[in-house]
Structures are given as structure tokens and as C-alpha cells.
Please model this.
Amino acid sequence: LESLPHLLTWREASRWLRRPVKWTTRQLIGVVSLEGLIVPGRSRRVPMPVPLPLPFVEAQAGAETIVRALRCAEANRRIAAVILHVETPGGSALASDLICREVRRLRKRKPVVVLMGGQATSGGYYVSTLANRIVARPTTLTGSIGIWGGKFVAAGLYRKLGTGREAVQRGAMAGLYSELAPFSDEERARVRRDLGEVYARFKARVAEGRGMTEEQVEEIARGRVWTGAQAFEVGLVDELGDFETALTLAKELAGLDPEREYTVVHVRPPRHELLPSPFPLAGGRAGDGGLWVLLDALRALARERVWALAPWVVQIRG
Model:
């Protein structure tokens, strides 16, 4: 018996097996992801990769989906702060403005920290500018504060197909965006005026969010693209870093203990809601699959008149 190893009783062993107590908190940090082309309606994902260097054949961030996610984060009492992850070349100027206004509304209740990914240009910067803080990586592409628009003219295509269309209009500008004819001089002047108004609104949002005058914004706008490091130098972002940097800022702004660990949750709107949507007339069918998603994307592209979208696509290949 003396050669047998010493056996411990359960009471003796339990103090070695007991796991240390790790105190947790009920407060959470919410993360809302905005990825892809910014469009009206609901977010969509193309079910199959399309080998075209065009932003509308990739994921789409619908304004309705993003706004509903931000409102879910606001309604959740356990969420103390929100990190908005932005990875987009931009998109619809109207949809970008809707998300921007929702960020402004949310920040009155809870801190909002934007974390930029590899690209957050044009509309991507538009939705970010009114957050409490903006974090970018040194290599992030951002800025591109500018607006463009126009229309497709299909009259030549109809002739080649041997078909034709005719339109009856009442009013000098009723056929402004008709695809049957290019802009007249008067129509072109009207479109430029409309684009100028949207551009002025974009610059006003940036001036409000960054504490600049509109003259200062104009010096760094005009569609210029900045790296994250350059944007930090000119005042377009607050910090250079990664998710941990954004998380630290979120805890600081929310008055949370910086040394304590908090659970991070991804906030997505429910698929079925009891309350009516804040966008009752918004298009988009989130459940549709196949090529219908791509068709909806093309339709959205044709409907939009004013874009806050970088006129190029960044593709990094190893």
C-alpha cells in the first residue's frame, strides 16, 4: 500500500480544480457593419462572384438595413456604445445622407465610433463624418468628398435593336432623366445646379462633424482621395489604429472601465418585425436569391441620379 500514489479526497482536490471567478458585466459594445455599395432599400449580397471591376456587382449596404440596425443598437439598453465598421467605395448620395442623419441621431443617446476598413471613400466618408470619433488604418483610402451624376442614353441602342420608344411629356424638365435623348444645355445647367446643392450639403455635414468651416472643407474636398495617414494629418480622422483602438475609444466615450472586458455583439435588424419599417416605400427584396439580386442592383444603379461614389474600384491581389 505504501507504493501506491497518495489519493486526494474530493474536498482536497476541489480547491485546485476550482476555476477563478471572472467578473463580467451586462453592458455590451455593439458593432454595425456597413459593407459594399451604399444603396436605398435593404442590404443585398450577390450569390455568386461576377468577374467585373464594378462596385454594384458586389455586396450592397442598404440604407434601410443599416438604419434599422442602428435603431436596434439604440433600443438595446445593454449596448453602451456602437462601433460602425465602414468598408465601402460609397454609393447613393441620398442613401448616404439617410445613414449620416441616423448616426447623428444615435450619437445623442450613445457614443458612435467609426472604424474604417480598407476603403471608406465618398459616401463611405459621408456616413462617417458625424460620428463621435473616426478611426482609420494608415493605409485606408478615404475622403473623396465629391458628387457626380448623369444618365444613360439608350437611343442608339434602340436603333441597333430595331426597336423604338416614344415619350409624351408636359413641362420643360419632365424628361430630364429620359434615356431617349442627351441633356440639352438647359437640362445640363439644371443637373449641375442639383449636383452643386448636394455637394454643398455633403461639405456642410463634414464641416459640422469635423469642426471646420466650409472653406476649410473645400480645401481638402473636390474629390481628393487620402490615405488614412494623410487624412489624420488634415483632420478627416481622429485616430490611426485597428479594432482595439476603436474599442478603447468606445469604452472611454461611454464612461466604461477601460481595464474591464466587455462582450462585443454584432447588431443586425430582425428579419421580421412587429413594428413598421422606417422606410415603408423602400425597394429591395432581401430574401431573393440568384440573379434577381444582380438585376435589382442594376435597376438601383439606373434609378439613382446623384452618387457619392469613388469612380474606381480598388482590388488588392496577392
Summary: Residues 279-289 have pLDDT under 50 and may be disordered. The radius of gyration is 25 Å. Residues 7 and 13 are 9 Å apart (CA to CA). The chain is about 35% helix and 20% strand.
